[in-house]
Each structure stands twice: as C-alpha cells, then as structure tokens.
Amino acid sequence: MRQCIRWLVLFATLPALGLAVAPAMAGGNRNAATWYRRAFAELDAFNRAEWDVIEAYRADPSGPPPPALRQALAKGTAAMDFVRRGAEQGYADYDLDYSLGAELQLPHLARLRNLTKLMQADVYVRLHDGDSAGASRQVAAMYRAAGHCTDDRILISSLVGNSVFQVTDQAAQIAIDRAAFGPGESALVLGAVESLDEADPFAVAEALVGEQDFLVGWMEREYGGQEQRQAMVDGDMFWLTGSGEAEREMAAMSDDEFAQSIGDYDQMMGEVVAAFANEDREAGRAELVAIYDRFEEGDHGLLAHLMTPAFLRVFDQMEASAAQVAGRRAVLEALAAGTRKPEDEANAAVDYLRAIELIREMEPERLGVLTAYAAGESGGESGGESEGESEGLRESIGVTGPIVAAARAGSEKRRCDFSYLRGRGIPGFAPAYVPGMCDLFRVLHADARRHLEAGDGAAAADRLAIAYRVVAHLGRDEVLLSAIVAHDAFQRTDALVGPALTAGILGVDERAALADAAQRIGRKDPFGYVDALAAERGHVERLVGLRVAHEAPRFEEIMDSAKHVSGEEALYVLAVRDTLEGDASAGPDLTRRLDGAISVETLAMVRAEARLLAPQYRAGEIDLYRDREVPKIADVSDRMRSARGDLRRGLARLQPERPNAAPRHPAIEPGSP
Fold it and tell me: pTM score, two decimals?
C-alpha cells in the first residue's frame, strides 16, 4: 500500500513529507508556490557534505563562517532569491488533490523547511559580515513563508509553518542579540510578523475545519462499503495502526455501523474545532479535556479513537506560538519606533562568545602562562622568576586587551542568554561555551592580579568588577555546570578582592564599584543552582522518554527517580551519556579547561566506567546511580548549601570599612594564591 500521511495521528513525523513527487504547478507568478517550486529545484544540486556544513554553522554561529559554508550559500543564491520573490505574494496554492484524503502527499513542506535552514545560515553569515539590511530581508521573507504554510488548510502544514517560524525566530533573535536591527530593519521584519494572526498565527483552527471537510468525504468514498473495507484487510492495507487489528474491526462493521462511526468522528471534530475557536482560551482548553474524558469512557466511535491526535498538545503549542509572535512583535515595534535602542535588547552572550573566540586564537602556551598566573602558581617581575618567565608573562598579558574589552561590553548589558547555543535537544554535560567561560575568568583574574601587583587599584577593580558581573550573567544560565563555574569564579574573584582591600590597593571608589557589580548576583539563588538543577532533572526525564519504552517494567520507577535526581547524579548521568554517545563535550580538552571547577580525576574515572555501563545504558537503564553512591564530579549539594553564605560574606567585605576595624586578610603578595 502507498505510504499515507496521517496528520491527525503522526503530525510530528515531518521527514516523511519529502518522499513523494510534487503535484503539478498551479497558478501564476502571483502564487507563492510558483516561486517556491523554483527554489525547491535548486535544492536538488546540494550534496550531503554541503548540508552538513550548513547544519554545523546553524548549530553554532559564534565563530567565523568557514569557506565551505560560503561556497554552499553562494550555490543557494538563486534558491533564496526565489523564496524572497515567493514571500512577496499573497497566497501559496500547491494545487493539492484533497480527494486523496489521508493519502495526500505534501513534499513541499520538507523542502520549505530545508530552504529555511539554508536562509538561516545565510542570515548568520550576513550578521557576521555586518550586512544587517541583507539579514533583515532574509528574515522577513522567512516569516512570510511560514505564514504561507497555512494556506494548505491541513494541520501538518500549520505545524510545519510553526516549525519554519521557530527557525526564523532564532535567526531574528540572534540579530537582535547582536544589536543588528535598527529602526529600518526592525520595521521591515515587523511587517512580516504582522502578517500572522495574533490569536492563531498558523491557522490551526482553520486547518482542523479543512481536514474535517475532506477526510469525512474520503472515508465515505474509500471505505463506505463492506466490500471495500474487506478488500483493505485482504490486501494487508493496514493504514490505521499497521497491525490490521483496527482494520479488521472496521471490516466487521455493517455499512450502517461504519456510517455511524464516521458520523461520531465528524461530530467530535466539530466539537474540537469549536474548542480551538473559543475566544476564552481557558474555556476552550477545558472543552478539549472534556472530549478526552469522554474518550476514556468509550465515546466517539472507532474512527475518532484512531484518527485523533494529541489535541491538547496542539492547542498548547498554538497558545505558545501566539505568545511568541506577540512577544516578537512587541520587541520589533519598540525597535522600529525608536522607543528602545538596539543595544537595549542586545545579548551579553554574543560579547562573551567573541571573547572566547579571541582566547581560542591565542597560542596554547600563552593561555597556559595566564592560567598558572591567575591561580597564583607563578609571579610577576618581582616574584623571583627568571627573566624569560617574566617576559613570557608580559607577552601573554599583552594580548588580553581585546578579550577584556569584549568581556566588559558583555558584562554591562542587561540581557544574557546562552540558550540558543544549546539547541533544542538535551544539552551535553558541558555545553561548549562553559569551558570557554572558564578560560575567560582566568584571563580576567590574571589581568587583575597583574594590576594589583603593580599597585593600580583602579585597573584591577575594573577587571574584578567585570568578573563579578559575568558571574551574575552565567549564574542565570540554567545549566548545572554553569552554576558551578559561576560559583567557583566568584570565590576566586573574592580571594583576590579581600587581600587587596586590606592592603589598601583598592580604595573607597574601587570598593563601591566592586560592591555595585557583586550586588547584581541574586541573593535568593546565588549562581543559579536551584533553577539549573530543575532544568537538569527535566533533561534526565527526557532521556527516560527517549531511551526507556513506556511499557518497560521499570518505566514508572525510573521516571520517578529522574524527577528527584540529585545534582551529583545528574552530572554523572549526563557525563555517561555524552561519553557513550560521542558528544564533543566529553572530550579530553574538557579536563584542562574545567580544572578547578570540577574534579577532573573523577570525570576521567566516570568516562572509563561509562564503557562498562554501556550495555545497561543501551538497554534503557539510565538510572545508573540507583542504590549506589555515584562518583562526585562536583559536590553540588555542598556548593548549594554554601552559596548564599559565600555571597553574603563577599558582599559584607565590600561594605564601607568601619573606623579602627582590625585587618581581616594579609596583604596580597606577588605570586600568592
């Protein structure tokens, strides 16, 4: 039997949409589909290697675009031009034959998603090159193409429209993060976003009406007679469940019973459409819940049970999309009107990634010198080292200026969001930017120590204040390792501040500047342990869903365990998972760059142990910590308990000095830790 697209049951299985040949071209140049099809034809020239380089840069656009990417984008110039032409049109009609019912093929959806990915990579390159106008034109076209998906009046098309919107919105957010969209660019993009309906951006309710219309008629035509239904069973045409059980039950029905089942399905769909169209959103959702409750009681008939998707999930996604579109409109309206400046919406993470990139460009030996110096393992010119060592330190410190400047720019921004670098999957044990942030703190601490030893309190306070502000930003990342690194960096910064205050190197003005910077760190959850642990528990739960069959005997037990996993256990599971699944975050470079924040010896032991646990992990037993004390890559529990006290003591140290107060710390000496 032909492969059927069952939007009402398997709407998440999007890759299958690219299997069929596109139907004949419909309409003229005013039809967006005409232009999109010309773009689709251009995609056939791309090979797997070119798509791989596009996907790699989409996943991490923080560095310079590789030459291979530029070559691939040049190859796609015509395709992207056609998309922009199509996006200017008022409608998209692919001349779909709705009489095919659930067997209707929709290959244009997968191809449009691929075009959007190509254009997203192009936006990132344009932003890197400073072409804000070109980037805004691409983003506007992508938003309009997302809206054109709704013209199919099919649920899967609406859901793909939302998927295209998500890819587009990621590109728009990165442009806003980089302060690339001024009033003109924002107004252009805003016009495209305003073409989407505020309440139902991807016309889900209209799609449900369309499906109700043509699926009911198709079922009556194809299977209205008992002979037709029996032929379906005899020919092994098992399109509902794949097993034949439901089809045999249908074949056993009389014509009247089958007609009644279709009628029940039609009535149920009418109720669903009414719920989606209800302007009182809470009431609409409650109506859907009631429909599902009646399912549990056996109502609505066989076809309704078999052909009904997760409507609550679709409804919630519709609501989330509406909120996301409204939020994007609000930001673009403010930027277009000039009531907010581009820098007001900029993302500090962009500056930090620039600093990390500059550190990557350093010679490893120079970074090693700075790392040792920041940790107090070597001194400056007066520390007794050889002239060669002093010269090496001077050369290493001499290249840190642009790094410090990038960190300062980021630390002064209101927003900091690394989430776009983690993608939509389950983050690894150590997202790539976290080790980079460790390196950034080392550079800041080394530069601060250099100025302290030289007696330059103002310059030292500048670097230390930057470090405090970066800690505040990293502590909001909702990644457990980010919380650990932020806490460790705070302690190392505080260890430099205390002796410098006592020695008088940092005066009243410097103390005030440091206090202002440190006070940006939240009191309730310093360094973000609570939120990060909640997020990591969610990731472990997702691993359960991906790796453990719902019917497995221990599924509920493992799921319950995942909901209460400790910080140490979460780190352990993620480290094992990364090791076994080949994630780059488990590579050897991680050890050097995270040394001090975590126990690198324990991490190495966990990596080795992971190979032995592979059979259990692959069998779905991801609760590898059950009934045992897991190796502590980091003592998260102790860190969580001490976090507020550490911050409180650090802030107290920065309060104005009381007259005749006794010294609390020895004066800082060159080379002291």
Answer: 0.78
